[in-house]
Design goal:
The protein is of the alpha+beta class and 107 residues long. The protein contains two helices and four strands.
């Protein structure tokens, strides 16, 4: 029965999530709890906006290095990307880039 099967790998995707949380450390606590209780190969994919804080966000990352530093303090980053809008076209007055990482949570 598949309901009794434990996963061997877990991917937690937190894309456009963390910056909206009132208490983001609770998210990281939950990730660590899942890692320790499940004893599986757990990876986290997370994104953070770079730019001015918009009203629905509880956090602000003015530079990519600040966003990478925040994530690096909470996870061991295996891969990272910086997405920027094309030089031509519409640009948000708030968002200048997006930091994306894949890694494992720190204990």
């Amino acid at each position: 029965d598949i309901r009794n099967t434990k996963p061997t790998n877990i991917l937690i995707a937190a894309s456009e999530v963390i910056e909206h949380l009132e208490e983001p450390e609770k998210f990281w606590d939950l990730v660590r709890k899942i890692k320790h209780e499940r004893e599986t190969d757990l990876r986290v994919y997370a994104t953070l906006p770079v730019g001015r804080r918009i009203p629905s966000h509880t956090m602000e990352f003015c530079t990519a290095s600040v966003a990478f530093e925040y994530l690096g303090a909470r996870m061991t980053i295996e891969q990272q990307w910086l997405l920027k809008p094309p030089s031509s076209g519409s640009v948000s007055p708030y968002l200048s880039a997006c930091v994306c990482v894949l890694g494992t949570p720190r204990n």
